[in-house]
Structure of Acyl-CoA dehydrogenase:
Amino acid sequence: MTYRAPVADMLFTLEHAAGLAAARGEGLYAELDRDTLSAILEEAGSFATEKIAPLNAVGDRQGCSLAEGRVSTPEGWAATYKEWAAAGWNTILAEEAHGGQGMPTAVWALASELWSQGSVAFGLCPLLTQGAVEALERHASQELKATWLPKLVSGEWTATMNLTEPQAGSDLALLKARAERAGDGTYRIFGQKIFITYGEHEMADDIVHLVLARLPDAPEGTRGISLFLVPKLLLDESGTPSKRNDVVCAGIEEKLGIHGSPTCTMVYGDKGGATGWLVGEEHRGLACMFTMMNNARLAVGLQGVALAERATQHALAFAHERRQGRAEGVSGAAPIVAHPDVRRMLLTMRAMTAAARGICYRAAVELDRARFSADPNEAKAAQERASLLIPIAKAFGTDIGCEVASLGVQVFGGMGYVEETGAAQFLRDARITPIYEGTNGVQAIDLVTRKLPQSGGETARGVIAGLRASASRAAEAHPQGLGHAARRLDEAVDALESATAWLAAPERTQAEALAGATPYLRLFALAAGGASLVEEALAAAKTNDAEAARSKAAIARFFAENLLTAAAGLELSVTEGAGSLAGEDVEAALAV
Amino acid sequence: MTYRAPVADMLFTLEHAAGLAAARGEGLYAELDRDTLSAILEEAGSFATEKIAPLNAVGDRQGCSLAEGRVSTPEGWAATYKEWAAAGWNTILAEEAHGGQGMPTAVWALASELWSQGSVAFGLCPLLTQGAVEALERHASQELKATWLPKLVSGEWTATMNLTEPQAGSDLALLKARAERAGDGTYRIFGQKIFITYGEHEMADDIVHLVLARLPDAPEGTRGISLFLVPKLLLDESGTPSKRNDVVCAGIEEKLGIHGSPTCTMVYGDKGGATGWLVGEEHRGLACMFTMMNNARLAVGLQGVALAERATQHALAFAHERRQGRAEGVSGAAPIVAHPDVRRMLLTMRAMTAAARGICYRAAVELDRARFSADPNEAKAAQERASLLIPIAKAFGTDIGCEVASLGVQVFGGMGYVEETGAAQFLRDARITPIYEGTNGVQAIDLVTRKLPQSGGETARGVIAGLRASASRAAEAHPQGLGHAARRLDEAVDALESATAWLAAPERTQAEALAGATPYLRLFALAAGGASLVEEALAAAKTNDAEAARSKAAIARFFAENLLTAAAGLELSVTEGAGSLAGEDVEAALAV
C-alpha cells in the first residue's frame, strides 16, 4: 500500500489557508522559522510513514485481547510506541516546566494528523495522554503535577479519560461513579466506566486514569461531578509504579474498527476502593475536563482528515493502475482515473480532505494566537474564533472522513469490499470519529447555542466577513482556472449570513435553533472550506510551482462548482426545516 | 433486536405511490385482488421475520468457510433455505411452464425486499437463482430448459452468475475465460472467475453456473462473449446430480459484510475442461445477461431499501428507550427521540427509505405493465419507463441504504460502533450494494447515455411530467401538514427539467454528459422520491387512518423541506460541473 506523508502540502495549507503566514506578520511563531517547522514535520512524517503506517493493517487484523485482566496490543505496537516516545514526540505541546517543549498548537496539530495518517488506532494513545497532561497542567496541585506530569509528558506513562458509563454518554449529568474522602487527602473511587480507550495495555509502565465521579455530598447534575487522578499502579517512595490499585479492565469491546486500540470497561473499587487524588476543586470536575476539549476535538477532526488523506492516496494510486473501459485519448483499456465519474469521486475526496484540513489548521492557528498574542484583546478574540471553529473542525473533519473513505471503497469497486485491499478499513476506522469526543450532533448544538452567541455574535460575524473577503479576493485576482469559484463562494457566504442571522433573531426559540444545528454546521463548514481552498489557490498562483498552482486551482474550482452548490439548500433546511421536526404529525412518523 | 415486516406500509406504497391502484384501473393485476396480494405478502413477511431474520446476526458472526473445496454456510442457513424453497417462495416469478407461478413482478419485488429485510446475505442466493431462471427462460433451448429449469424454479438447485475476472469488472470486454466446442454439442470451459456469490455451498443438491466465456473464433470485445450453463454436478440419466464437473471453488473472500454469503473464486477446467452447454447463440452471451438485469438491479435497489428499513426500525426503537439529556415537556432524562438533532436523523432515515422504496416499486409496476398490458404501445412505453427508473432505483436505493445505515450507527452513538448492537452490521452489509450488479457510477452512465435518449427523450419527459403533476396535486389539495412540500417539489422538478434539457442539448459532448451523470441521477431520484412521498400523503389523507395520514404527511414534508432542497445545487453540478472534471489543472490535481 502506497502512502507518503504529504508534509509540504500540509505546510502550504497551514501557511496560506490557515493563516500562519499572516500570524508571523503579527509577530507570532517568531521562535519557529520556516525551515525548523518544516524539518520537525518532515521528521514526524518519516516516523508516520516508516514506523507507524506499517502497523495499521496488522493492528486491524490482530486487534487486542484480554486475558486475566491483561490486555495485549497488536504485534509491534508496544515497541513502536516506546520508540516514538523516546524520540520525544510526546513532548511537543506540554509546558517546559515538566519536560515539554511548549511548541505551538499548530505544530502539535500537524504532527497529530501525521500519527493518525499512520494509524488512528495507534495515534489515539498519545492523544489521550496529551489531554490528561493539559488537564493536570491547568488544574492539578503542584504536588500532583510534580509526581505525575514528567512521565506523562515524556510518554513513559500514558493516560485515559473516564467519562462514559452505561447510562451516561452525551449526558454526563447521569453519571453514578462515586468517590469518598479517605481522610488522608486521598479518595476512594467506585464505579464502572465504559468505552475507555487504552484503559489497559502493557505499552507503558503506568496508566493514569482521569475519572469523573461524585462525592457523597455532591449536588445533582453536572455541577456535582469531581475529577480524580487514579493510577493503574500506585507509586512507591522512589516514584516507581509498584502496587496494583483497585482498578481492573473487565472487558474489551468488539468494534467496527480501530481494532488496534483497546476499548475497555474499567471497574473501580471492587476491593474496597481505588485510590485517587482530586484534580482541581471538588464538584468542579467538568470544568477541568472542558480545558482539554478544544485540543482533543481538534485532534479528532484531524483523525477524520488523516483517514480521508489515506483513503484518497490509496484510491488515487489504484485509479491510475486499474484499467477498465475506454476513454477519449487512451488506446486500449483506460486507467479508470480517465473516467469522468471516477474523477468526480477522486476530486470530491481530494477537495473535501483539503477543505476540512484548512478549517482544522485555522482553528490551530487561532489557538496559538490565543496562547501567544501579546494583545489580550486579540488573544480573547482569537480564543473565541478558535472556539467557534472547533466544533466545525471536529464534525466536518470526521463527517468527510467517513464520506471520503466510503468513496474510496467505491473507487475500488468489488475489490474495495474485500478486506485485503485495505479500503474498507479506512471506512471502519473512520466511523467512530463522528461519535466520540462529543458526537457531531453535540458539536452542532455547541456551535449554535454556545459559540454563535459569543461576544453578541461579533465573533461569528467577523469570521464570516473573512470568508467574504476570500470570495472578493478570488473575484478580483481571478486567476486562471478558478471557474465560477468566486461566485459560488460568494453565494455560499450569502447563505451562511442569512442562516446565521435567522439563528440569532430574538424571536428564535431554542427548539428552532437546535433543529437547524446540523445543516447549519455543514453550511458553515462548506463556506469556510471553500474559502480555504480559494486562499490556497490564490497563494499557489503566486509561487513558481506551476504544477501546484494548477492542482490547487482545480481543487478549489471543483469544490466550489460541485460541493459549495449545496449551500442554498442547507440554508433552507436551517431556516425552514424546523417546522418539519416537531408536532403531532412528526410524533406519528416517529412512533414505534 | 426488534424487527417487524412493515407489509401494510409496503402495500400502501405499492398501491398509492407506485401506481398499482391506477394499473388496476387499466385492467392489470385482475387475477390478484387486494386480499390475495395482502395474504401472500403477510405470509412472506412472517417467514422473513420468524425464520430469516434470526439468522442474520449468526450469519455475520460465523460467516462461511472453505475446506477441501467445500464451503460451509452458517448454522441454520441450509435448513432455512430448504424450508423456504419447500414453501414455494422461489416460484413466484417464473413461468408456469416450468413450475413457476408467473405472478406479477411487483409481488416478487416486495417479497424480495422482505427476504432482504430478514437477511441480505441469505436473500442473495435465491436472487441469483431467479436471474438464471430468467436468462434460461428467454434464451435456452427447449432441452436445456426441460433439464434444468424445473429444479431451479423450485429452488432445489441454485444458480450463479459468472461474469467478473480479476482484470474484467465493469469492463466485460476484457474477459478471458475460454470455451471450446467439444464436437458433441457441448463445450469445454476454462478460466477463473472471481466474486461469485454462492459459487459453492451445500444448501442445494446442485449449483448451475451461468458463465461468460469466449470461443476460439470470437471477435474481440463484448461482441465475442458467449454464455454457458455449467453445472457443479453433471446429471445422470435419471436427471439426478451425480458426477463432479471440472469446476472448483479455489477461495472465498474475507469481506466487509454479507459474511453469511460465500463470495467464491471459481476455477473452470483445471482437469481438461468443465462441461457446459451454450445458452442462446454463440457470441451473443452479453445480450442474454442483459435480459435479467432489470429485475436483478431492481432487487439490489431493494436490498438497499431493506437494510435502510431494518436500520430505521432498529434506531427508532433505541431512540425511544435510550434516555440522555433534557427536553421540553419531559421530566427527568428524556428519550433521545425527543432531541431535534436525533429527530432529524430518524426522519431522514424514514424519509429516504420511503422515497427509495416508492421509486423501486414504481419500476416494478412499470415492468408489469410492460409484461401484461394488452396495448403493445403502452407495453413498450412502460418498458421504457421501467428501463429509465431502474438505474435510479438501483443507485438511489443502495446509496440511501448506506446513508441510512450510517445514520443508524450515529443514533446509537458509542454503542453503534460496538458490533454487539447490530447497527454496524447493517452498514457493513449495505456497503456492497452500490458496487455489485453494476456500480452506481455505471447506473448513472446508463441513465444518462442509454435511458434518457429513449424515444427521443419522450420517455423521460413523460415521467418528469408525472412528477410535476404530483406537485400540482399537492398544491391544489393542500392537505394539512404538508408545509412547503408542493413548492419544494415543484422547484425540484424545475431543476430536473433544466438538467435534463441541458443533457439532451445537441451540442452536449459525451464527456460533459458523463461528468454530470451521478449528480443527475441523484437529482432525478430526489424529485421522484419527493413526488412518491407526496402521493402517499395525499392518498393517506383520504383514508380513515388519521395516524397514518399524519405520519405520511410528516415524512413527505420533512423530505421536501430538508432533502429536496438539494435539487438546485445538484442542477448546478450537472450543468456547470463538467468543466471542473477535465483539463490540465485537473490532471495536476489527480497526479500521483
